[in-house]
Specification:
By secondary structure, the protein is of the alpha+beta class. It folds into 3 domains: 147 residues, dinb family like domain (Four Helix Bundle (Hemerythrin (Met), subunit A)); 216 residues, Alpha-Beta Complex (paralog of FGE (formylglycine-generating enzyme)), CATH 3.90.1580; 62 residues, no CATH class. The chain contains 9 helices and 12 strands. The longest helix has 23 residues. The relative contact order is 0.14. The model has no long low-confidence stretch (mean pLDDT 96).
Length: 436
C-alpha cells in the first residue's frame, strides 16, 4: 500500500467515525439505549457493532492482536440476535461503547501503519480497511434511518438541497444489446458486485427521473390504495394487514394537503422531490397504475453505466471520476432527496438523471449471485441472503456516503420494507417501432 493510499484510508476512517459520532452525540443517553422501532437496533448497539467488526477484521485479523473484549462478541453479532431483541441484551453503556470504539480505532490505525499489505487478498489495495469504512458508513445510514423513526424535536440539521429544473423528456430509450455488468476491477467492490460479466438487455424505455411526491400523490388521491387491481396478491395482502394508505411519514391535513415528517419536522410535501419511504409493493402498485413497471437490475445498471458512443460501462453515470457535490445528493449533506433536475452534471450518457443518490431505487429483480460469484471474505455479507423474497435496490440515497457506493453496488431488502430511504423510477418495454 502506497503512502498516499494509507493517507486516503486513514482519512476515510476518520470521516466515517466523525459521522458515527455526530449521529450518536446528537441525542441523550436515553435515546441512545432506546429502541425507536422493532425494525431497528438501539443506536448504542449500532455504534458498538461498528467497533466490534473493526476489531474482528483490522485489529485481530490484519493486526494480529489479541481480542480486546472477547466476552462481547456475541452481543454484537447481527446473526445471533434479531433487531427487536437487542434492546434487552446486556449491552455496553454509551460511555463504555465510546471508550471501546476509540480503543479499537487506535489499534486499527496502528495496523494500518505497520502491517505489510501485500501478498494477501484480504489486504491488497487496502481492501480490509475499505470494507470496514463501507461497513461503518452503511451503519451510519442505518442510524440515520433510526433518527427518522424517533419521536421528538429535530436534532439533525443540514442545508437544503439545490433547486431542480424541468427535464426535457420524461423517458429515454435504452438500446438493445450487451453491456458489461458488475466489476472485476474496483478494488473495494464487495463480493456480490463481482465478477464483471456480459449481459444482454432488450430495448426498453426508462424514466429520466425517479417518481416524485407530486406524481405519487396523484396515485394516492385516485384511490390507488383502495383498488386491489393495481397490487400483486402479496402486495395487497400486506397493504391490508399493515393498513397502508400513503408513503410512510405522510399525513393529510383537513384541507387535503399532504405533509411529510422529516427528522422531526412536519412540512408540506415538495412535489418535485423523489418520493421516499415506499415499499417495493407500493412501487409495483404505482407502476401498474401508471401503465409501466419497475426496471430490472440489469436494465437499471445499463441505463446508469452504458456509454453508447464508446460501448463501455462507466464507473458512474457521468463518467469515471468519483462523485462530487455537483454530481449527486450523497453523504448526508442534505436530509432529504433533491428536486428533479438538481444534478445535471450527474446524468448518464443516455440522459437519465439522479441514478446515484437521493433515494434507493427498487428494481424488479430478486437477490441472486452473478455468474462466477465467489464468496469473499465471509458468507454472512452476501451469500446467506441469496434467494428468498428479497428485492434489489440500486443507486444509494441522500444518506449513503460516496465511499460506500458505486454504480455496481447492490443493496437488497424485503419488499415490505419502507423505513429505508427507498423510492423508485419506472420503465416499460420498447415496441418494435421504437427501435431505430
Amino acid at each position: 500500500m502506497s503512502p498516499d493510499l494509507r493517507t486516503t484510508v486513514a482519512d476515510l476512517l476518520s470521516a466515517s467515525r466523525a459521522r458515527s459520532t455526530a449521529l450518536t452525540d446528537a441525542v441523550d443517553e436515553a435515546d441512545l439505549v432506546a429502541q425507536h422501532s422493532p425494525l431497528m437496533s438501539p443506536l448504542v448497539w449500532d455504534l458498538a457493532h461498528i467497533g466490534s467488526q473493526e476489531e474482528l477484521w483490522l485489529v485481530r485479523d490484519v493486526g494480529g492482536r489479541e481480542p480486546l473484549r472477547p466476552e462481547i462478541d456475541g452481543l454484537y453479532d447481527a446473526f445471533q440476535h434479531s433487531r427487536a431483541s437487542r434492546v434487552a441484551l446486556p449491552l455496553l453503556t454509551p460511555s463504555e461503547t465510546r471508550r471501546y470504539v476509540a480503543e479499537v480505532r487506535d489499534k486499527a490505525l496502528d495496523a494500518l501503519a505497520r502491517t505489510p499489505l501485500t501478498g494477501r487478498r484480504l489486504v491488497e489495495n487496502g481492501f480490509a480497511f475499505g470494507m470496514i469504512v463501507q461497513h461503518e458508513q452503511q451503519h451510519d445510514e442505518t442510524m440515520l434511518a433510526t433518527h427518522q423513526l424517533r419521536t421528538g424535536p429535530a436534532v439533525l440539521h443540514a442545508d437544503p438541497p439545490p433547486s431542480g429544473s424541468p427535464l426535457p423528456v420524461r423517458e429515454v430509450l435504452v438500446p438493445a444489446g450487451g453491456f458489461t455488468m458488475g466489476t472485476s476491477t474496483e478494488p473495494w467492490a464487495l463480493d456480490n458486485e463481482r465478477p464483471a460479466h456480459a449481459t444482454h438487455v432488450d430495448a426498453f424505455w426508462i424514466d429520466t427521473a425517479p417518481v416524485t411526491n407530486g406524481w405519487y400523490a396523484e396515485f394516492v388521491d385516485a384511490g390507488g390504495y383502495d383498488q386491489p387491481r393495481w397490487w400483486s396478491e402479496a402486495g395487497w395482502r400486506h397493504r391490508v394487514d399493515a393498513g397502508l394508505v400513503a408513503p410512510q411519514f405522510w399525513k393529510r391535513d383537513g384541507s387535503g394537503q399532504w405533509y411529510r415528517r422529516t427528522f422531526g419536522v412536519l412540512a408540506p410535501i415538495v412535489v418535485d422531490e423523489p418520493v421516499v419511504h415506499v415499499s417495493c409493493h407500493e412501487a409495483d402498485a404505482f407502476a401498474a397504475w401508471a401503465g409501466k413497471r419497475l426496471p430490472s437490475e440489469a436494465e437499471w445498471e445499463k441505463a446508469a453505466r452504458f456509454d453508447p458512443v464508446s460501448g463501455r460501462s462507466r464507473r458512474y453515470p457521468w463518467g469515471d471520476e468519483d462523485p462530487t457535490p455537483e454530481h449527486a445528493n450523497l453523504g448526508q449533506r442534505h436530509l432529504r432527496p433533491a428536486p428533479v433536475g438538481a444534478y445535471p452534471r450527474g446524468a448518464s450518457a443516455l440522459g437519465v438523471h439522479q441514478l446515484i443518490g437521493d433515494v434507493w431505487e427498487w428494481t424488479s429483480s430478486g437477490w441472486h449471485p452473478y455468474p462466477g460469484y465467489e464468496t469473499f471474505p465471509y458468507p454472512e455479507y452476501s451469500e446467506v441472503f441469496f434467494g428468498g423474497d428479497y428485492r434489489v435496490l440500486r443507486g444509494g440515497s441522500f444518506g449513503t456516503d460516496p465511499s460506500a457506493l458505486r454504480s455496481t453496488f447492490r443493496n437488497w431488502d424485503h419488499p415490505i420494507r419502507r423505513q429505508i430511504f427507498s423510492g423508485f423510477r419506472l420503465a416499460r418495454d420498447a415496441a418494435p417501432g421504437d427501435v431505430h
